[in-house]
Amino acid sequence: MIKIxxxxxxxxxxxxxxxxxLNIEGIYGLIGPNGAGKTTLMKxxxxxxxxxxxxxxxxxxSIIKGKYVKQNTVIGYLPQDFMIxxxxxxxxxxxxxxxxxxxMNKHERKIKVHQAIKEVxxxxxxxxxxxxxxxxxxxxxxxxxxxxxxxxxLLFDEPTAGLxxxxxxxxxxxxxxxxxxRTVVISSHIVEDIEFLSAKIAVLKNGHVLFEGTPTELKALxxxxxxxxxxxxxxxxxxxxxxQVVQVNEEKEGINIRVFSSEIEEGxxxxxxxLIDGYLAAVKGMS
Length: 287
Ligand SMILES: Nc1ncnc2c1ncn2[C@@H]1O[C@H](COP(=O)(O)OP(=O)(O)OP(=O)(O)O)[C@@H](O)[C@H]1O
Ligand SMILES: [Mg+2]
Fold this sequence. Notes:
Blueprint: E1 2-11, E2 14-24, E3 27-31, H1 38-45, E4 53-58, E5 61-62, E6 64-65, E7 68-69, E8 75-78, H2 90-100, H3 106-119, H4 135-147, E9 153-157, H5 165-181, E10 183-188, H6 191-195, E11 200-205, E12 208-213, H7 215-220, E13 226-231, H8 233-242, E14 244-251, E15 254-260, E16 269-270, H9 275-283
Parallel strand pairs: 3-10, 3-11, 8-9, 9-10
Antiparallel strand pairs: 1-2, 1-4, 4-5, 6-7, 11-12, 13-15, 13-16, 14-15
């Protein structure tokens, strides 16, 4: 468990993170629009950048030294745009990284590299070059190289961005497996990505924490705020002008529109909120 309290990060005069307090555990979803501060927070946790103020504890012990998170804290970070050694095989790349991490015994390294390859389901692809791998496979290599360092916390920045549907599903399953033994933080601006993975979610916007809690609690923020209209297609344009339309579905009977409103909508039926509705309620400050 990572406990963050009143974390502040400024770059020049800009407040990038303002009094961020979070209790990170299990498979944890960090969601927020572009520029919310998700990447910045992950970089601080993985000691790539400094912080200005705040405390961070892991399992009850402070992991800060000066303005940085201690380097040896076994937090593994997979950046948004991971790529290593494009022209050597993935097995060689991992072997090389293991060596850089100080594993000098060749046999031990081989065992460790194969364990990591197995854990991310890349068996059979060991001899492919990085450039020959799909986007999803490359991300798996990124995770494999983190596993070499035995991290107890894994930070994944937008891990499913750019993956097709099949890869996305495979990747989700992998993240779920990895989360059985470790704390896994997944950042995304796509709510669906974390919907079925995370037991706990934080919503970040402009460097502020707007929400932290379970998916059910997030959904509850939009309670009594989601309405459904059945309309003709012609009415849609007019309606989107003065209502906050969150979803449009075409159906046999006409168009089904989900509208967000904290007031009673005449002629619409109230519906149960979904996670995306709760997220919108949080970022738009409607709760
Ligand atoms: N080195 C930097 N110098 C100046 N501003 C920065 C720097 N790094 C980040 N920022 C600013 O900090 C804010 C948060 O950026 P960050 O990359 O953490 O957001 P994010 O939530 O990861 O967004 P995205 O969803 O687009 O990846 C943004 O407004 C960004 O412009
Ligand atoms: Mg980012």
